[in-house]
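As promised in the previous annual report, we have extended the structural survey to additional targets. Below is the entry for Peptidase S53 domain-containing protein.
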Amino acid sequence: MRQRILVSALGVGALAVAGLTVQTLSAAGADAATPYTAGKHAARVCSTAKAKHTASCNAVKLVNPDGFAPAASAPPSTGLTPTGLRDAYKLNGLSAGGRTVAIVDAYGYPNLERDLGVYRSQFGLSACTTANGCLKVINQTGGTSLPRFNAGWAGEQALDVDAVSAAAPDAKIIVVQANSASFADLGTAVQTAAKQAGVVAISNSYGGGDASDATYGAYYNHPGIAVTASTGDDGYQGGSYPASSSYTTAVGGTSLVAASNSRGWSESVWSGAGSGCSTYNTALPGAASFSTGCSKRAMADVSAAADPGKGGMAIYYPTSKTASTWAQFGGTSEAAPIIAAVYALSGNTSGYANAFPYAHPGSLFDVTSGSNGSCPTTQWCNARTGWDGPTGLGTPNGAGAF
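The corresponding structure token record, generated without further manual editing, is:
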């Protein structure tokens, strides 16, 4: 039976990432003596959605056995940096050329601009502010009266803006904050994002149970804009909406580590990466020749780094409405904005963007090892050559598949 590595941030136990000894780390600077990941386990950033057709964010962070990520004055040394990310996915030399990535999340985050500035300054990225036109933060209908603060979803937003910044430093960013985590409010925010000038990609790092495009598809149906959605952090579980929508690019997750090979990196399935078949929505036309085993829409389509311990990003995030610090985050919430940023780097978003990877699988790094659980059809939960559920067709090798 697959071991769960994710636990509620409100009730964490003394679990550990597989292979790591559980021990309490002291506060800032602990990773100077031991790796930041040592003794830590992955905990959800947002509470689990309980109401039907309500989403939970798919961000996780590394915490100690007491359930805390100790305050740190510097990024964890084990966290994936912008330089590492762009090298791993061969994105150096690519430019977004003024294109914009929109990020849709729930609730407010008053210090988003301040915290993004800390992250970008730390890693030598140019400033992205409202004053210079790089950053815009609006509510679900496009106004400037923003929703109430929610610490979990604000952490999700921090991961999203940092991930886009890392993958495509010159991309503009629009954050659209929904009033709540209901499918209706988040969907309204997606529609607002699609109307913003310059937007070529919309990242959605959240999900709920499988749902029908007949009810919610109009929110995500935006030909000419790449709409990415994370597949979830619970392994093989079946469809998760909106990743199970026929209109989105479903993004799974990998474990990413430096390696002494020609690429310089190695990837395998992250055990938490969501996968499965929708019971409602139509299969993507391009997937027919890849033997998904699903009679309807299969997820994932592509993937990127998501394992918080192996490929998790060092990010600057809020611990309260006023205070922020560094920690190491992951989840398929990391992967979805990375892929949205790669679409912005490619600029090739005419028509339905989720068709592009199926037409160019040779421009992806195929992930062929690892598993995210037990399943009745092998490729739904086990990596293999070609398409598989946890990682789709693979991870970016430049922007040629996007």
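The chain has seven helices and 20 strands. Residues 51-59+70-396 form a domain with the Rossmann fold fold (CATH 3.40.50.200). These points will be discussed at the next consortium meeting with the crystallography subgroup.
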